């Protein structure tokens, strides 16, 4: 468990059979994220990273109306009024999103309702996005006069391509779940009543697979997205070799021959 209490009561988390859950719990503001909530995300991710039992991490929003509706604008006057304050705020929020993005454990954004602004950035930091068919997506920066940093725009381009990225930023409008699916912004759409069960099954499937294989795949995908001159091919080879040299590879082969489910240990 965490060494110290969370800095925000508006973030919840739990662990269940290899699944780590993070819940944005500010439903009165459609789960708009405050500075202390971003700090708490960092705390939770540090705990999940250090726990070898956690195989997959799923993020969601409380209240049934929003995943995350963006930053808590009520804080802007106090905590983002100057360039220096805005830079500090951006550093804290970006550190939390990087913790999500850089973890070697698979991450899933379970999206119901509004996924706007910082909510989009949070969802994009996850490996897989599963949403209800009534969800809404958008980045309203152009309506607020906000600037988006290179890394955030590049992440969006990597997922939806430059044409859709321009459309999202230029219009600043809200897109339907069907439009988001067509853009590649989400992986799957499911009926609202089926979301929890669908994501739970996905999590159980992932948690039951070989952790070393998943970690290797996640890292190699990252390398593949880099320019060819920057790819660490030696790392890619080492990751594959580690899989073949692992106890889990022996267990996987043995379980296949014995027609039973493998029990992987991540070593």
Written overview of the protein:
There is one protein chain. The protein has 267 residues and is an alpha/beta fold. It has 2 domains: 11-206, Alpha-Beta Complex (2-enoyl-CoA Hydratase, Chain A, domain 1); 209-257, no CATH class. Helix content is 49%, strand content 16%. It is built from 12 helices and 10 strands. It has helices at 35-50, 76-79, 83-102, 118-124, 141-144, 150-160, 162-171, 177-183, 195-208, 211-225, 233-244, 247-257; strands at 11-16, 19-24, 56-61, 66-68, 107-111, 114-116, 128-132, 136-138, 175-176, 188-190. Strands 1-2-3-5-7-10 form a 6-stranded mixed sheet, sandwiched between helices. The radius of gyration is 19 Å and the shape is globular. The two termini are 23 Å apart.
The CATH class of the largest domain is Alpha Beta
Between the first and last Cα atoms, what is the distance in angstroms? 23 Å
Question: Major sheet: size, sense and barrel closure?
Answer: 6 strands, mixed
Task: Record the strand order, biggest sheet.
Answer: 1-2-3-5-7-10
How many individual domains? 2
Number of strands: 10
Structural class: alpha/beta
Share in helix: 40-55%
Structure summarized in a few sentences:
The protein is α/β, with parallel strands linked by helices and 267 residues long.
Throw out a few tags for this protein:
single chain, 267 residues, 4-stranded mixed beta sheet
Give me the secondary-structure topology.
Blueprint: E1 11-16, E2 19-24, H1 35-50, E3 56-61, E4 66-68, H2 76-79, H3 83-102, E5 107-111, E6 114-116, H4 118-124, E7 128-132, E8 136-138, H5 141-144, H6 150-160, H7 162-171, E9 175-176, H8 177-183, E10 188-190, H9 195-208, H10 211-225, H11 233-244, H12 247-257
Parallel strand pairs: 2-3, 3-5, 4-6, 5-7, 6-8, 7-10
Antiparallel strand pairs: 1-2, 8-9
Helix pairs in contact: 1-3, 6-7, 10-11
């Amino acid at each position: 468990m965490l060494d110290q209490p969370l800095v925000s009561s508006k973030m919840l988390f739990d662990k269940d059979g290899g699944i780590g859950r993070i819940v944005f719990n500010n439903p009165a503001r459609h789960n708009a994220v405050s500075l202390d909530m971003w700090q708490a995300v960092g705390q939770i991710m540090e705990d999940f990273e250090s726990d070898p039992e956690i195989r997959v991490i799923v993020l969601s929003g409380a209240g049934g109306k929003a995943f995350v509706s963006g930053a808590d604008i009520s804080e802007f006057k106090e905590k983002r009024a100057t360039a220096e304050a805005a830079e500090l705020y951006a550093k804290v929020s970006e550190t939390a999103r990087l913790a999500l993005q850089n973890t070697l454990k698979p991450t899933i954004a379970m999206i119901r309702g509004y996924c706007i602004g910082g909510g989009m950035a949070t969802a994009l930091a996850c490996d897989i996005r599963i949403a209800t068919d009534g969800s809404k997506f958008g980045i309203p920066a152009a309506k607020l006069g906000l600037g988006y940093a290179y890394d955030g725009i590049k992440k969006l381009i990597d997922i939806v391509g430059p044409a859709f990225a321009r459309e999202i930023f230029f219009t600043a409008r809200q897109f339907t779940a069907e439009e988001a699916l067509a853009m590649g912004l989400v992986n799957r759409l499911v009926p609202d009543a089926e979301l929890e069960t669908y994501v739970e099954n996905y999590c159980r499937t992932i948690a039951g697979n070989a952790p070393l294989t998943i970690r290797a795949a996640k890292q190699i995908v990252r390398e593949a997205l880099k320019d060819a001159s920057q790819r660490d091919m030696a790392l890619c080879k080492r990751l594959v070799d580690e899989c073949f040299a692992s106890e889990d590879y022996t267990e996987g082969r043995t379980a296949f021959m014995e027609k039973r489910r493998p029990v992987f240990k991540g070593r």
